[in-house]
Write a structure and sequence with these properties.
Elements (H helix, E strand, L loop, with lengths): L5 E7 L3 H12 L6 E8 L5 H6 L6 E6 L4 H10 L5 E4 L5 E2 L3 H9 L6 E11 L22 H10 L10 E2 H7 L10 H11 L3 E14 L11 H21 L3 H18 L4 H14 L10 H10 L1 H13 L1
Parallel strand pairs: 1-2, 1-4, 2-3, 6-8
Antiparallel strand pairs: 4-7, 5-8
Helix pairs in contact: 5-9, 6-7, 7-8, 8-9, 9-10, 11-12
């Protein structure tokens, strides 16, 4: 077997329901030699047995005891060896030519360049065929990559983790995933990666699929520890970005990012929300409004954004 070109690294906790499809998308990558490493983070379902059943197809299982997704990714990085790295959550999917198309683009790019991809969001109970590819604002090349981070801060556009393909040498420079973080750990990590990169090449015909809205997912939680992680990850990301690319536009973008964080933290993390508001106003005069539909917008006008936000959270919990 030829030496692996790409390490596909998958943190897993209680993901047996979706894991087979994820592994199939990893094993099925066309035209590239891969090593696939799954780190099970203390699953209580049949995830470990399921991964072991894929051993004959080149999937390797490592285990740890409920240390978190960031620790699982660090474990996988330390135990893998290919020069290119693909992170993949245990419920997301790669298009069959995702990696090879990005590699073809990166062969003519400067050293230290990362590749991005088109990514579609689909509901947890649906199929990838229903994915909506909607975040076109960041579907382009960036040089320097900090321009992506500034635009992301301005608009809230995102690139989900599986969309990136990164050289391992660049990840070594960025350092490990921050194991103190849970919610938005990927945002903080890729801020460090991109601040050290030579730029971003967008590969339009490379595709990934992001499963969203599933019950119990970290992105859906309102736990205090997760909300503190969100606040802390934004603080770390802001410091990293402004140390690399401080400008009036970047500071205003950071103000918008902190304002969106203010809304997201309220009402469960009141003190952190208030701190986010202070952070926003030390950087600029944010123009971002509470993201909501027309009915809640009317309530914002009538009773203020805090009342509308409390109702918004209550509706989402129902």
């Amino acid at each position: 077997m030829s030496a692996p070109v790409v390490s596909i690294l998958i943190p897993c906790r209680d993901a047996a329901r979706w894991l087979s499809a994820t592994l199939e998308s990893a094993v099925g990558q066309i035209g590239v030699a891969t090593e696939i490493v799954v780190v099970d983070d203390g699953s209580t379902d049949e995830s470990r047995d399921l991964v072991q059943s894929w051993a004959s197809r080149g999937v390797r299982l490592l285990t740890q005891s409920s240390l978190g997704a960031s620790a699982a990714r660090n474990h996988a990085l330390a135990q893998s060896r290919a020069p290119w790295v693909q992170f993949l959550d245990a419920d997301d999917l790669l298009g069959p030519e995702k990696i090879i198309r990005q590699l073809h683009t990166l062969t003519t790019a400067p050293a230290g360049t990362v590749a991005s991809a088109s990514w579609g969001r689909f509901a947890h109970e649906a199929t990838p065929a229903s994915a909506v590819f909607a975040d076109s604002a960041v579907e382009r090349d960036y040089s320097p990559a900090t321009e992506f981070l500034v635009q992301q801060a301005e608009t809230g556009s995102m690139m989900h983790p599986a969309a990136w393909l990164c050289p391992r040498s660049l990840l070594d420079q960025a350092g490990p995933w921050n194991e103190r973080l849970s919610l938005n750990d990927d945002g903080e990590y890729f801020t460090r990666v991109l601040c050290r990169s030579s730029g971003i090449r967008y590969v339009s015909d490379a595709r990934t699929f992001y499963r969203s809205g599933r019950s119990g997912s970290l992105s859906q939680t309102r736990r205090q520890d997760a909300l503190k992680s969100l606040h802390d990850s934004v603080a770390l990301s802001v410091a990293e970005l402004l140390a690399k690319a401080d400008s009036p536009r970047a500071r205003q973008a950071v103000a918008e990012l902190w304002e969106r964080t203010r809304f997201e933290l309220y009402p469960e993390a009141y003190a952190l929300s208030a701190d986010a508001a202070r952070q926003a106003r030390t950087r600029g005069r944010p123009r971002t409004l509470l993201p909501c539909g027309p009915r809640l917008r009317w309530l914002v006008t009538l009773g203020g954004w805090k009342l509308a936000r409390r109702l918004q959270v209550r509706i989402r919990r129902a």
